[in-house]
What we know:
The chain has 482 residues and is of the alpha/beta class. It contains 13 helices and 16 strands. Helix 10 (351-366) crosses helix 13 (434-453).
Amino acid sequence: MRLSLHAGILAALALLAEAVPTPEPRALPLVQSNQLRRLLLRSELLKKGQTLQDFAYATEGRNRYIGTPGHNATVNYLVDTLTATGYYDIEVQPFTVPSASADLSVDGVTYEAAPMTFTAAGTPSGPLIPVANIGCDAADYPAELAGKIALISRGTCTFATKASLSKAAGAIGTVIYNNVEGLLQGTLGGEGNYAPTVGISQADGQTLLALVASGTATAGLIVELSEVLTYNVIAQTKGGDKENVLAVGAHTDSVEAGPGINDNGSGSIGNLEVALQLTKFSTNNAIRFGWWSGEEEGLLGAEHYVTTLPQEERDKIRLYINFDMIASPNFVYEIYDGDGSAFGTTGPPGSAEVEKLWEDYYKNDARIPTQPTEFDGRSDYGPFLDFGIASGGLSSGADGVKTEEEVALYGGTAGQIYDPNYHTAQDILANTNVGVWIQMAKGIAHAVATYGRSFETLPAKTKRSERREVHTYQRKGGKWVY
């Protein structure tokens, strides 16, 4: 089945659901952690990783970016593979995400520019005007900015704040330059009253400031928008208590630069392999696997899923666990800091308990040292936390720099980031660490088996408030917020 027509997918799913016999859930043995873990094989992770890489390499862009044939093939593969088990109720959830392209030229010279997610479209042209300080106060924006293009430093406040103040001051375009090396890839976080807004590198920002200081610099900005149709995949066990659900998630999309086998083919495949082996068991509680699209554009798939769930359905999710980048070559073993003891950000009740579950498992069973990592908003747990849903997860590291202390625990190279291929064309199967990958997958299986049997170690179930508490994280997926 292909994703050319959404209606065709749903029709095919209905036919498959009728054709595939459903096993009697209680005829299967109740899931146990050690039994489920033993079924996980490195060869299966590698086989499925090769499948995703083949999907990417069969396309011109050699990636699995949202809306591309490589990503659509990933979604089809998940749907077909899961439906064939007969063990899950499958939902394909379509949604649209904003897509943009940007070109910036100043005095006839072209500069690399990245459109901010949720920017407005347009082709403004005019003098480039630097904004005072870092553009977090209305007083920073000079009266002469009206009808011109603002040049603003990154720092302190959100890009949405800068873009809003810029537009309010009469700017017809906004250019935000980085305060560290590299191209600034950002998001405005949601719809708003913005002029066309882009990010550029720190070096280009300094060049433009020098041009303005030496005389008038005229900028031309072209921002074009489109909407991309993409899909989440949700698979819930037909057996188990539907009033008490463990949700297990990972994102399916890559960045445009490459096939994204560690980020996040590893998490997608780890969850898929656990889901496939779970079909040999029954569960007391329902297990809901979610494969989210649009994470790299700002957690858009998970955001769409959680916000469109009725509150009574959100209340059925006792815990959400997330897996993003679990096969990093210069790895660490990280557990999200649910109790806030390391970073001060405490998850909703239940988050501390799942952190302890994995701390105990890796210490006593796997005999692998672990360390906490911060709930910093950069993966799909973010929208679940916003709605008060207990969350946790595992990671082997992304662009953090490995320390000498971590080398003493895990080996590897100090001073190098955990995945040197992060967001590049080299994020390929050959550059993953399959030993870490299988150990992380077993951590997933341990949580699925434990909570598939019982939530007794979690706080008592309560009705959550419908009020959403939006956290201002520095990142949303692959995009910076400020």
